[in-house]
Amino acid sequence: MLILLPPSEGKAERGTSRARRLSFPELASPREKVLDALVSLCHTPEARDVLGLSDGQAGEIERNRALPAARTLPVADLYTGVLYDNLGLGALSPEARRRADRRIIVFSGLWGLLRPSDRVPPYRLSMGVRLPPMGGLAAFWRPSIGAVLDGTKGLVVDLRSATYTAAWQPGERGVAVRVLREAAGKRTVVSHMAKATRGVVARSLVETPDRPRTAGDLADLLAGLGHRVELAAPAGGNRPRTLDVIVGE
After folding, report:
1. What contacts 128, CB < 8 A, 6 or more positions away?
2. What is the Cα–Cα distance from 22 to 86, expressed in whole angstroms?
3. Strand (E) or helix (H) holding 135
4. Which of 118, 148, 223, 245 is deepest in the core (most CB within 10 A)?
């Protein structure tokens, strides 16, 4: 089973070591191209607009300039924000942490794919950015990520946002998790609460040694772990199924 996560805009302020470690060595060449392009961009006046930064985020440009020699920290400690606070990678048991490192893949506009134990410096680059000269990063990364992940086997639990699903789709072996809020008998798609719920779901899936093989197995497992879930009918056309996680007010 693979669990796909988006990164977070919120990140730790600084790294703690000069050691850099990256899984998926097949991505070394595109990583180098994106890193070089990002550093070059951040020496130009266009950087803030291209990266979508506010006046108060201008320090992110200086941080990106220093990336080649910047100190690193584990991905498990890098990302902050609602999803990662609820996932709580740093608070997992040793066994769950090992499972998380095998199961979780974080999609990144700069690094492509990351494991929780990888070590990288804090950075600022969304997959939705059109980075000169390669253009849209989702389209740039798609062939390289596909070459890595298309050959993997097993269920893929997709907890990513739309910006990152554009970089790779798992096909019919995927299960896209959607969070619905139920109030007064009506269900609506939510955003902020969705991040928290996805973090909780991911934590459930790394704390258990169980390995669901089908979408039905996944729904049964999450229900047994206390989540209220409903599995949609197969979409067909090599598309992922949808699993709704329903939360109350």
Report:
1. 52, 109, 136, 137, 138, 163
2. 24
3. strand 135-136
4. 118
